[in-house]
Amino acid sequence: MDTEPSWRDKRREASAAHAAALEQRKAAETAQARALLTDFVRQLQARGIEPQPLRAPVAGSSASYRTNVTGWYLRRNRSLGVDADGNFYILATPAGLKSRLAGVRLLPSDPPLTVGLGARDGESMPLRQLLDLRLEEVDGPA
Question: Where are the domains of the chain?
Answer without folding.
Answer: 7-139
